[in-house]
Specification:
The complex is a heterodimer.
Chain A lengths: L1 H7 L3 H24 L16 H12 L14 H7 L34 H9 L1 H4 L18 H11 L5 H6 L5 H11 L26 H14 L1 H4 L15 E2 L2 E2 L4 H10 L14 H17 L1
Antiparallel strand pairs in A: 1-2
Helix pairs in contact in A: 3-7, 3-9, 5-9, 10-13
Chain B lengths: L1 H4 L2 H30 L11 H32 L7 H23 L13 H23 L8 H20 L2 E5 L2 E4 L3 H19 L2 H15 L6 H15 L14 H13 L1 H16 L2 H4 L5 H22 L1 H7 L4 H30 L6 H34 L11 H6 L2 H37 L1
Antiparallel strand pairs in B: 1-2
Helix pairs in contact in B: 2-3, 2-4, 2-18, 3-4, 3-5, 3-8, 3-15, 4-5, 5-6, 6-7, 6-8, 6-9, 8-11, 8-15, 9-11, 10-13, 11-13, 13-15, 15-16, 15-18, 16-18
Classes of the chains: A mainly alpha, B mainly alpha.
């Protein structure tokens, strides 16, 4: 073999051709060949191309390098599905030029961020992440509010990708800011896949709070509240992005609510935009929270 | 006359340019390391983490790395072919174009023009510039090799040839895009396919910028500095072909547990494991080379750079494949472990070997000695300590991040929120900055040493 090589490295052209063939072997098998297979081009039935506003948001997501700190792919691992929701499917990304799965999770994964919080949450969080999470290291993106979109540019981008749009849709962009666009994009990410039902033991629940009125539970509930709930429901439940917890209106209807019902709202979230906390807070924690929330109602 | 024919000016120009871009890249690295634990260090809109990180990676990979590769390869090629470059003026033009391209690249990235493909962020007009740069380089290198006056092509030339070919294929394919404006384009490929093309490219950017060219330097400058021939020619042949073959199969280890079809992931992981063999082929060859006459080798101040460098290469090429395994990937993927891994390679192997090569070349060009071996030794120890602090800190925090994200309560609910996990990273992120500062000081000693040597050399020339 060394003899063969003696000849080979006197002949640069043959050497270069052989090196090219060597480099192409893996290229063909792992990159070109898969590209010819349908499994590399799947599309979920209810997946839609981005609207003009969403694409404008995605452009901003790219421009600001969001994907260097946020991934967009939930791995099929138990705790990952618990934390973020249903694991990512190949068919979700058919309109993603390029994919934005990322390689580092300094902040949370965003593959299931769409619809998790109300729009108002995102506006305020993007403006000042540390107003929500004291220990967050995310930069503030308040400047996005000051910048208007350029409808012609967005239209050009829509055309390049061949996404359908209407004239009205493009015209409506001139009143939109970059912040509107990025929130619209965040709210559509991962929504082609149905939300995963929460699957923790805490779901099986008694109707009556076993920790009702216990001082330690109220104290613990307050701590949990400050960490998880205050962002939206305000100081001592006076309200904010989410409704006040001091009155007797629950899910838009006035009237008493049972402990069990309150528990499941916290654990499973609501259609109105409250995320589920059943995967984040254990059963005892949620009951403590219920105990604490009951003390707020007395405050009104 | 001889000066120009042998193109020392171009070689030196590339080396000085690469050092300049290296300083820029390292300082931005320090800055973003501070942003990790001190968010007020973000200055909107141009100097946020999201925009600076890409200037750091591109600045060092393409400014420092590729700049050094161009210059040092010109130097090596001329000597191994026993003749000046075929087109010396083209090489000089290459140098100017290179600096213009890197400057424009940095500005365009800060302005937010990016393809969002890691290590292929530059927008399409700049991509065309990069392709022209490599074409000029290829014309000169191949032209010089074809008209060489030495019959045998030495190992380093094999690696140079493979580097040029692979970079061309990788760079052109992954940068295929749909233009949507002067500085905006969309990847031609979508979704899963886009991911597969990108990481086929991404991993081989590591392979053919941070591995094969640096091995070319190692195989040339280790024997030159120590006066000892490479231990096994046969081993270097086997290592070369198996490395160049296997690398292209491995990109999917970046996509373990993603929606990419499982078989591609598995093929990627298998070839990644195989890659340990050719990598260690070069490591072993390096060790046995100095082992032939250690008494002699250890007296040269550059030996420790090369041997520590190749040792980090060896560790890197065991740690890397381990990370590809599903059981390891699920813990450390997406955590700070990975920057720890990358920086062992870049700060430990690449920078160590490039710096030692520069230490060899600059005095040769001026026919003098290095300004100070003592300063070089201080440089060596500082970059070594800085890099170890950086990497080890990141490995610890990476394992912690992975473990905390997986931690569950007895009832199966998650134990920690993401913010609670982030809060625990701060001391480690601060420690990384400390490691970075020590490394940077080490590099300043290096630059001082090179500057003084050039000054001495110029004085000699005038005398």
């Amino acid at each position: 073999m060394a003899g063969l090589h003696e000849t080979l490295h006197k002949r640069p052209i043959i050497f270069a051709l052989l090196a090219t063939a060597t480099v192409l072997a893996g290229t063909i098998v792992t990159m070109l060949y898969p590209m010819l297979r349908p499994e590399m081009h799947p599309r979920l039935e209810n997946l839609k191309p981005y609207t003009a506003l969403q694409l404008a948001g995605r452009d901003i997501y790219q421009r600001e390098g969001c994907f260097y700190c946020h991934t967009q792919t939930v791995r099929p691992l138990k705790t990952e599905v618990l934390r973020y929701g249903e694991y990512s499917k190949a068919g979700e990304f058919a309109y993603d030029h390029p994919f934005l799965w990322g390689s580092k999770r300094t902040g949370p994964d965003l593959a299931r961020i769409g619809g998790k919080y109300p729009d108002a949450w995102h506006y305020r969080h993007m403006e000042n992440p540390r107003a929500f999470f004291k220990e967050s290291n995310m930069p503030s993106y308040a400047f996005l509010k000051e910048r208007k979109l350029n409808p012609e540019e967005v239209e050009r981008h829509m055309n390049a990708l061949g996404f359908p749009y209407t004239r009205e849709e493009i015209e409506a962009l001139k009143d939109k800011t970059e912040m509107d666009a990025i929130v619209a994009y965040l709210q559509v990410i991962g929504t082609a896949v149905k939300k995963k039902e929460v699957q923790v033991e805490a779901k099986v629940v008694e109707e009556i709070n076993p920790l009702s009125g216990k001082p330690e539970a109220i104290k613990k509930g307050k701590e949990i509240y400050e960490k998880n709930c205050e962002i939206c429901h305000g100081d001592d439940g006076k309200g904010g992005i989410g409704p006040t917890l001091r009155d007797n209106v629950w899910l838009g209807k006035e009237g008493e609510i049972s402990d069990g019902k309150l528990f499941s709202i916290i654990a499973d979230g609501t259609q109105a935009g409250m995320p589920p906390f059943g995967t984040q807070i254990d059963k005892e924690g949620i009951w403590s929270l219920v105990s604490y929330i009951r003390t707020l109602q007395e405050k009104k | 006359m001889d000066e120009y024919r042998y193109d020392h000016q171009t070689v030196k120009g590339f080396i000085v340019s690469s050092i300049f871009w290296g300083v820029v890249g390292i300082l931005i690295g320090l800055w973003i390391s501070i942003q990790m634990w001190h968010p007020a260090a973000n200055i909107q809109p141009y100097f946020t983490f999201g925009r600076l990180r890409v200037v750091h990676t591109n600045g060092l990979a393409f400014g420092l790395g590729v700049g050094a590769i161009f210059g040092i390869f010109y130097y090596i090629t001329m000597r191994l072919c026993r003749r000046p470059l075929l087109f010396p003026r083209l090489a000089r033009f290459h140098l100017y174009l290179f600096n213009a391209a890197i400057a424009l690249a940095a500005l365009s990235l800060l302005a937010g023009y990016t393809q969002s493909l890691e290590y292929a962020e530059l927008e399409w007009p700049l991509d065309i510039g990069v392709v022209i740069l490599w074409m000029i380089f290829a014309i000169n290198i191949f032209g010089t090799i074809f008209s060489r006056r030495e019959e045998q092509m030495y190992i380093s030339l094999w690696y140079i040839i493979a580097t040029v070919i692979a970079v061309a294929i990788l760079y052109i394919i992954n940068n295929l895009s749909i233009p949507a404006g002067l500085l905006k384009s969309y990847h031609l490929f979508a979704g899963v396919n886009s991911a597969n093309v990108q990481w086929w490219y991404g991993h081989n950017a590591v392979g053919f910028v941070f591995t094969t060219p640096i091995l070319a330097m190692f195989y040339y400058f280790l024997p030159k500095s120590t006066g000892l021939p490479i231990y096994s020619h046969r081993l270097s042949i086997i290592a070369f072909w198996s490395l160049v073959f296997a690398y292209l199969w491995t990109g999917a280890h970046h996509l373990v547990y993603t929606p990419l079809p499982d078989w591609i992931q598995t093929v990627g992981i298998v070839f990644t494991m195989f890659l340990i063999a050719p990598s260690w082929g070069s490591v072993v060859n390096g060790y046995y080379t100095v082992g032939q006459d250690w008494e002699r080798a250890k007296n040269n101040y550059l030996t420790k750079f090369f041997i520590l460098g190749i040792t980090f290469y060896g560790l890197q090429t065991v740690q890397g494949p381990t990370q590809g395994l599903r059981i390891v990937s699920q813990l450390i993927h997406y955590t700070d472990w990975v920057p720890g891994h990358v920086h062992m390679g870049t700060m430990g192997w690449v920078t160590m070997t490039v710096a030692a090569s520069v230490y060899y070349i600059i005095p040769k060009i001026y026919n003098t000695e290095i300004h100070s071996v003592k300063v070089a030794n201080i440089h060596f120890w500082l970059v070594l300590i800085g890099q170890l602090i950086f990497s080890i800190t990141m490995w610890i925090t990476g394992i912690q991040q992975g473990a905390l994200q997986k931690a569950v309560n007895p009832d199966g609910s998650l134990k920690y929120t993401m913010v609670e996990i982030i809060a625990k990273n701060y001391p480690y992120w601060e420690m990384r900055t400390v490691g970075g500062i020590i490394f940077t000081i080490g590099m300043l000693f290096f630059i001082y040493n090179i500057y003084m040597t050039i000054r001495k050399g110029k004085a000699l020339q005038q005398a």
